[in-house]
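Quick one, tokens below:
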């Protein structure tokens, strides 16, 4: 029995040792496999990250090429580069925006529209995207949609200095409205900008030029005066204000502004400066000729008689050119009216407002009719014709 017991004990010990060896081996094998798997995983992740990083780098390179081409005014080249960039970085929004912009600048209107529209769906409040869609809507001859999109751009979100960008969009919208003949709507936009002009004389000058196209002379005059007040030594602003005032019939303002421009620019042989001086002389001559109702009655009557002399001389010269031809009816009737007007004197005119208006009207009619029959006038006659064309403004 003792031998059997000893053998059983020995076998049990041997089996336990064998089990321990197997367990150690299994643990070692498991650990080895785990380490191999971890190494393989690390290598895989490293390769994946390298691949992803390389793709991203290629995307950035192609995007930079596209952006450079777009900056250089080569949108077609930019399109190819940006399409390649999106192959390496699909869904990158910045690349998509650049590609849409390139398509628009290259003239691919419909494709650009579709691209921007898909971008708009994910960010409908983006001011820049709405602006691009507004410009494309104009190309697609959908002006009403364009105006709505411009307004959406104005009230949309902008990166950076939003107030400056919104002002630029509103100015662009104003130009569109003027081109479409919506003067009152354009005027309303300009008034909004003018209310937030930040004392910028250049902006005031731009607003004045646009306001002039709306037909609002009073507001245009205010904007020009404001620009001159903000930059009293800027000859360019004063000259622009003077030219507009002269063309619109505001001769007192024109003379003042043009004088300011001349004094600021100083003596110069520059043709532009000479033109300003000539226009200033014309404006001052206009003021010397015009029979302002605020003048003392005798002085107003004397100016009317001076205009009568100029107008009658123009008529006489025009009639002289009709020798051998049938005199136009309106010229004949005009001559008959002048016969009765020649009897007026300072004393008969100064206390007779009706006669004063009749004489002024006759002079203006003479300049209009003789221009039609005998061609464009010169000198004082040209000034009187201009005055006749802006009579309402001059009287105001």
């Amino acid at each position: 029995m003792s031998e059997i017991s000893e053998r059983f004990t020995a076998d049990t010990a041997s089996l336990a040792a064998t089990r321990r060896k197997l367990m150690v081996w299994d643990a070692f094998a498991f650990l080895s496999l785990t380490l191999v798997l971890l190494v393989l995983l690390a290598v895989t992740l490293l390769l994946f990250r390298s691949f992803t990083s390389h793709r991203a780098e290629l995307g950035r390179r192609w995007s930079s090429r596209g952006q450079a081409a777009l900056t250089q005014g080569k949108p077609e080249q930019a399109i190819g580069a940006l399409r390649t960039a999106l192959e390496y970085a699909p869904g990158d929004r910045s690349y998509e925006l650049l590609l849409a912009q390139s398509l628009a600048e290259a003239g691919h209107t419909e494709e650009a529209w579709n691209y921007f529209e898909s971008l708009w769906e994910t960010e409908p409040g983006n001011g820049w995207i709405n602006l691009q869609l507004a410009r494309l809507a104009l190309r697609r001859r959908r002006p009403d949609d364009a105006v709505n999109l411009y307004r959406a751009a104005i009230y949309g979100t902008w990166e950076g200095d939003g107030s400056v960008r919104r002002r630029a969009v509103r100015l662009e919208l104003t130009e569109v409205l003027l081109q479409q003949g919506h003067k009152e709507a354009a005027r309303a936009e300009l008034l909004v900008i003018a209310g937030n002009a930040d004392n910028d004389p250049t902006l005031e000058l731009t607003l004045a030029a646009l306001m002039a196209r709306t037909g609002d002379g009073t507001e245009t005059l205010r904007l020009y005066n404001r620009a001159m007040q903000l930059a009293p030594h800027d000859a360019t602003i004063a000259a622009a204000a003077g030219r507009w005032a002269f063309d619109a019939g505001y001769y007192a303002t024109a003379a003042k502004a043009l004088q300011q421009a001349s004094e600021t620019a100083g003596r110069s042989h520059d043709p532009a400066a000479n033109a300003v001086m000539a226009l200033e002389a014309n404006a001052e001559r206009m003021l010397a000729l015009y029979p302002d109702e605020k003048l003392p009655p005798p002085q107003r009557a004397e100016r009317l008689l001076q205009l009568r002399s100029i107008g009658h001389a123009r008529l006489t010269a025009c009639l002289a050119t009709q020798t051998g031809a049938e005199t136009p009816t309106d010229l004949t009737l005009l001559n008959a009216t002048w016969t009765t007007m020649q009897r007026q004197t300072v004393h008969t005119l100064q206390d007779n407002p009706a006669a004063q208006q009749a004489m002024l009207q006759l002079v203006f009619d003479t300049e209009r009719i003789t221009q039609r029959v005998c061609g464009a006038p010169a000198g004082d006659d040209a000034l009187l014709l201009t005055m006749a064309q802006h009579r309402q403004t001059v009287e105001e």
